[in-house]
Queue: 4 jobs
Job 1
Amino acid sequence: MYRRNKIARVCVLALVALQLLIVSGCGGGTTSSTSGEPFAAIAMEPASVSMARGNQRLSTLNTQVGGSFSGSLALSAAGAPDGMTVTFDPPSVAGSGSSNVTVSVARGTPTGTYAITISGNGGGLNKTTTLTVVVSAEVLLTWTASTGDVIGYNVSRSDTSGAGYVRLNSESISGTSYIDNAAQSEHTYYYVVTAVSSTGVESPPSEEASADVP
């Protein structure tokens, strides 16, 4: 026997999509100095990353120097909102090289679009590139556990109430919550949950829950 589940809570959270953009004329590029003048450039690889709040992603900052440049480029980031950190390993690069850049975003990071300046300073030069942070949306679903021989749950979503549901999870969910991090802003979604027994039998769907994503 399955008990008909009711999705107990639907919370709209936020998803952070990160884009690391090289600003024309502000560092980056691959042209080396052809004279004795000091030359330096910085660039990101990959140039963009995306992530959900509560997670972190890794990118690589590459540096190139030439001419009479000497010393190292000290790396820093400015303009990150509350809840977001940008760290460098190593924090400075001697000459041409690279540094691992870790971007961490807490769940409390506010929605919006942010321009973060990443700088490389050294040898009398200051080179910058821009990190653009775009906050969009995700949906958190929670439900009451079913009784009986249940080993997991499936979550399905539709753009239309009462029909057209598509399963979201690739493997059965052992707990009683799920984050839909593929939701898009300015959409309304409809969700149902089913329970799966140890023999693979799936229950009828739960009552439908809806979420209006801002």
Job 2
Amino acid sequence: MASEHNRVRRKWQDYGGGAAALAENAFFVSFSEVFKDTDYNIVSKPKEFSKIYVNVRLNDREAQEIYNPEVKITRHGVSTDYKIINRKSKKSIYVEVKRQDGWVEGKPRSAGRGNAHERSCKFFTPGLLEILRKESGILPPALPFWTVFQGDITRDPCRVREITCWYTGYDAHFFFWRSAPDPDSLFEHFDNCIAPLLER
């Protein structure tokens, strides 16, 4: 293991369960704290993809058949929740944190009707995958993104099966953070599955 990898591991082990009181921004706050004095950094709401659709070329027929407003479109893109950067290797990974209700004890099956987990799948599309790979420096077969699920969805028998199916072969790239806001299991997943992608 790289020495920087070990240093981050030691820091998260020291940080541990003491952060259990953190609430909504638990992901960002936890990683901001554990990345202090390391080669890693976390950025909230990175902006590099905010215009990626503006200059998408359409064929002439498509361009003629759509609405073409007089006002020029200057912003049209996607936003990820976070970006984790290894400043030494210059590699990064984009992170989506999806909190969603789910079907658990004492709730009707309809409690799992949200679609945040479905929206997260846009990063699997060929065009976005190519753009994220180019920006992140993470090459196939790894993915340039990591999705962290929070809330009752992490125990919903239907949604957990859906997500597990969708990510077949890419187990490292999603995580059910059932113990949120306690970051121990989250840091362990990062250490075992994500950090190695950023070190190479």
Job 3
Amino acid sequence: MQIILRVISGIAKGHKLKTVKGSTTRPTSDMVKESLFNIIAEYVPDARVLDLFAGTGNLGIEALSRGARYAVFVDKSRECIRIIRENLIHTRLLEKAEIIQANSIEYIKKLSHTDSKFDIIFMDPPYNENLIVPVLDIIGNGDIISENGIIAVERTNKNEIPEQIGCLIKFKDRKYGTTSLSFYKHSSLCI
């Protein structure tokens, strides 16, 4: 069964998004995506967005449609990169995007040696690879999230993650069936 994805709000509302055939990606459902964007709504206008493990680009494209200034999409799969580009062209948002074919962990390690900072970071890594904690650790120590930025992590309910990872504090958790969304910010004690 192939999931039909669409942009649910903003300037590209209603545009259908292509997905990758097979089971290599697990796109965020419209219900979970709507909930996620209700929670982060105040962060989206004019935001710089980093979409790690981007898959189809679903989350970054939704952010751009809702008024984010710029988005960087990172995925190691050539097929995903092709689909992200096609989705950005279809939604007319390509000029606000950068698409990087790379391992997400290696990419954020490189970013930590630059001045790049993001207001929103989306993470939707493969569920069974235990990547969430290592990636959050690199983000927290790498100074790539802006002072008031937010990190949104999609995960399976079976994959518990800590309340604090370095200077990052989990401030919200929501469950939707077998999926959970967790949200992190910098601790005020670390800033």
Job 4
Amino acid sequence: MNHKILKNIDVFSELSPGEINDFLASAQKKRYPHGSIVIQRGDLGDIIYLILKGSVKVVLTHIEGREIILNVMKTGDYFGEMSVFDYMPRSATIIAEEDCEFLMISREALTNQIRKNPQIALKMLSNMSNKVREMNEQVNCLTNLDAKGRVAQTLLKLSKKAGVIIENGSLIIPRPLVRDIADMSGTSRETVSRILTELTKSGIIGLSKEHIVIYREFETNDKFV
């Protein structure tokens, strides 16, 4: 199972079975229960975490103590690589959204593989660049849009990242919690609930207990944001 997950990740896809075995031989598995802190912002670290099972949220804490969710990652994603490369403290806190299992890869093991396969480093740098771009977009959203715009952009981001394409739009499954949408958009749960109701009445989105539909005709329409 671990072999398959590694091969399905672009960064490690070109490793031979023997090289994957080397990774697995030096790696450790660790489980974290729902709600636990996997990485604390400011801590030192030399480990990359590959998500074998579950999902995590990447958060910063606002000066008022409120969480701001920067990203959500699921099975097959990895995190922690920035501190492995720059030897600096962790830049964000990672919290388990559900019971999780990780494959923990040390700086030494990763460095050894990069010496053999420099392509790994290039792919990881590309991945980190994408993460930085996403974070910049998130900051721009939080600082330049009103509450409705921020909620709308959050829904679009969730749709693009993990949405299921359907005939008349895209489907976000499972339906994200109001609390998480609020934390991602930098607003209150009450405001999110109100805006979701407004967007539903306007025919821009559809809501059920299990999912959110973003109708295609509004996905690129200014009316949505």
